[in-house]
Amino acid sequence: MFHAVNAQTSDEFITRSKSSFKISSNSLDLKATDQILVLETTKATNRKNGKGKYRFAYQSIHLEFSVNDRIENFYSDINSDKNKYKLSFFDSNNNLIISVLIPAYYVNRLNNPVSNPKLYFYSIDLLEVPRIIINNTDKIDIIKLVTTK
Question: What mean pLDDT do residues 75-94 have?
């Protein structure tokens, strides 16, 4: 049997707000068609601590957006950079606040290959990014780091 979950119930667990960041990839404006910040509570899987397993939960902000172009790959010779994304945060004067590397599994990408124009949907876990940086950000530049061919 299936049970419907209404929006009010799901909002108790997830807090959402519209955002208006300029989102680019390798300095190319991706012109986000929609974007939100989502505060999610995540229940993690069991982890071993030497004495047994334990469960834990944490909250993190996710940036979710839709765009017509993919985040670009940037080729790197540094092997430790592969399978990571580089997020660069800029203030309203286009000054770099900070750049951070996050693991690729913090980024979820879906797309609809038959839509016209093609749409890409991203959800990026900003767990490693202090909220004060997000509060002072006007633009986020995102690239996917991959090793050379």
Answer: 85
